[in-house]
Amino acid sequence: MSLLTGIRACVFDAYGTIFDFASAAARCTEIPAEQRAALTNLWRDKQLQYTWLRTLQGRYADFWQVTGEALDFTLDSLGIATPTLRSRLMDLYLTLSSFPEVPDTLRRLKKAGFLTAILSNGSPAMLDNAVRNAGLRDLLDAVLSADAVKVFKTHPRVYEYSLQQLGVEAQQVSFQSSNAWDAFAASAFGMHVVWCNRYGQRRERLPGAPEHEVRSLAELPALLASPT
Fold first, then answer.
1. Is the pTM higher than 0.85?
2. How far apart are CA 96 and CA 22, in angstroms?
């Protein structure tokens, strides 16, 4: 196994990588158990589809609006739409749980001397709430939102924005995402990429190639040579 060398910054996707998007529906016990997984999966699928379609159309709306519109579609599709349930789920999305290994992984990276950052489609307010709720604020040097450039990943402007904000070059970044499409896009952009394949996805047939594939972020520090 070859270590990634020359890395100065470890940049993470947020939803599915740092934060467990399934934890919103999981905590919404008023939804029958057999519908929670269906709700989570369809909500996430439509949320992502809407980001890509809005970017292609040049009709940007922030991730909070997109998330709400995707939820509306999902609740209507499942036949469980009520204003109370919608409000409850949107509130829960602001306080998603982080995956168990995340705090310790970030501590180890900071102790080793790496910059740590989130780069997400999430709106600034969404990310601020999630980071604060998970107790990660002191473990991150930057929390960066695609809202600053008014397009969503996988547009190259989003990845370029992170380089500008962190003062690094693409080859000095190790980018981590659980989303295969995001991991491959960051690789095609020129970043080193560790694909955190939490969900056992197949490899995409897209430009780019992650250099490492892991199932947990706890595996990340061992893949990185210490920064000089």
1. yes
2. 8
